[in-house]
Every structure is written in C-alpha cells, then in structure tokens.
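STRUCTURE REQUEST FORM
Protein name: Deoxyuridine 5'-triphosphate nucleotidohydrolase
Source organism: Myroides indicus
Requested output: structure tokens
Priority: standard
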Amino acid sequence: MIQIKIINKSQHPLPNYETSQSAGMDLRANLTQPITLESLDRAIIPTGLFMELPQGYEAQIRPRSGLAAKKGITMLNSPGTIDADYRGEIGVIVINLSKEPFTIENGERIAQMVISKFEQIQWQPAEVLSETERGSGGFGSTGVK
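Status: completed
Returned output:
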C-alpha cells in the first residue's frame, strides 16, 4: 500500500474505499451553494482536495455508475487523469446528459478516483509492424456476439 500526501480544504471526510475490494474512492463536491445543471450543461465541480502523487502514478477520475444510470450525470473527459506533478485542486468536469435539471449539493458524491501505476514509453520508429491474426481490423471487426 502506498501513502499519498493530501490536503483537505473541504469540510468533508477524505475519500475512502467503501468496501474491502473497491478500486475507487468517491469524491465529494465542495460547494458554497448548490449548482444546478440544466440538460447538456457542464461545470467543473471543486472537491477541496489537493494531493501529491508519487512519480509513476496517476489518479483516474471516473463517473459514478449510479449517477450515470439513474440521473444521466457523467464526466466529459472520462476517465480524467491527474498527473503526479499536478498540485492544484482536484476538479471534476460534470455534464448532465438527461433531459431534466440536476442539482449538485455540497458534500454530494460526484465521481470516483482510482490511483494507478503507469509506465512511460519511448517510441521506437519502425517501417513495419509484426503480423497478427486480427491485423488492422477494429471498430467491431471481431463480431457482434
């Protein structure tokens, strides 16, 4: 288990894992007043959280499945990436894809955050790539069922 420095400028608890096998932690809106998103409106919702990720890690910000399925609330850049060298406030770009207005209240769980290790790569320019059974097929080329 890695340890990550975090500053919490909100009045809400730190994100935590809701179950013993959860991959993500819920992020809460840190608002001075509710924000209502009309259909197709979007907004950056502040969380009041600032963190220092170790080199080689990222935080992925993802929609909450319940908000997406029940209310049509999701994120425009899903998953959003927070890089290890970012020190600003974590904000969540939320959009209302439903036909009904949706109000975000202070403290509401609006997204989930997954911490992931990653590798940086170095390009190796080439003239040809190895052959595979799939080849260049994509966008549904492997069938419907």
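Reviewer notes: Helices lie at 65-71. DSSP finds one helix and eleven strands in the chain.
Form closed.
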